[in-house]
Amino acid sequence: MNPDYGVEPFEDKGCCKGLNEVIIYGTSDFVTICKEVYVRTRRVRLLGLEGAGKTSLIKAMLGQLKERNNAVLECIHVDLHGKAVSNGLCYLDSATVKLQDLPLEVRRFKEELQLGMHDLSRKTDLIIVVHNLAHHIPQYYQSNSSEPQPALSLLLDEAKVLCVPWILAITNKFAVSAHEQNTLISSAMEAYKASPDNTKVVNSSPFLMPSAKNSLHPISSTSGDLEEDSFGRAAFHPVNFALSPFHRKDIVMHVEGVAALQQHLHQVIVSNEEPAFEELAREKLSLELAR
After folding, report:
1. What are phi and psi of 168, to 5 degrees?
2. What is the rounded distance in angstroms from the CA atom of residue 20 to the CA atom of residue 145?
3. pLDDT tens per residue, the chain (291 residues)?
4. Which CATH code for domain 41-210+249-290?
5. Are 132 and 51 in contact (CB under 8 A)?
6. DSSP characters for 104-132?
7. HSE-CB of 183 using CA atoms within 13 angstroms
């Protein structure tokens, strides 16, 4: 509540900071009671290499919400640190994973996840692994393994150890030809060991597909275009050109699959609702006992 007793949107930017307290007053004919309610915004972290499309995916998810319900525009907040609150979730657009510093990236990611185990305001509730369909999957060779594995799998393994759920989001689906899509999608799913139910293919930003143009070229006259007559004046001779080629409009492939991705990640969040409530209750109980 505001000091002026106005109602603030539930998805205020302060929700990104973690725990928030709300007091609900219930009044009957005989008594008025108050109940203190604790709220924690769920945090969804995007993980991907350079050019994977993390930022455009977040913008697309926010855009889907704007188009669906203009009444909640004031409930969307994006700050300068890659945070965006939308529809009850806090999306974290993390820095790009640097392949040249992969061991360091893995260590930092592990520390970040472990920190969330002890501080719910920094807990990662869901990870979206973002892969650009037009990019190759970089492989990493470990000394204790005979087979290479995707570089991002090293970070993903740390999340699996801590039982953090994750989703594979494959972006830029129209950047490859139609007959290559299924093969590349299957290869990405196999590389990251993602099930079909846990994989979503999206086009997070409009993609321009140039149309094939006619190969005809204009034909000019063999005689000169401009000559002078006997009086020294410029005289134009008729020039015959072939018909101009037919120009077809470029095809724009619009945003696709983002709504299905949002629906799926909300389902994953809801499926882990009970453990999250227990974690929140334990933390608040420990704070009360520490007083």
Report:
1. -100, 120
2. 45
3. 333 333 334 444 444 444 455 666 677 777 777 777 777 888 999 999 988 888 888 888 887 544 444 444 434 444 445 788 887 788 988 788 888 889 899 999 999 999 888 888 888 999 999 999 989 999 888 777 778 889 999 999 999 999 999 999 999 888 888 888 889 999 999 999 999 999 999 988 766 666 544 444 444 444 445 555 555 555 555 555 554 455 566 666 677 888 899 999 999 999 988 888 888 788 878 877 887
4. 3.40.50.300
5. yes
6. HHHHHHHHHHHHHHH-GGG---EEEEEEE
7. 7
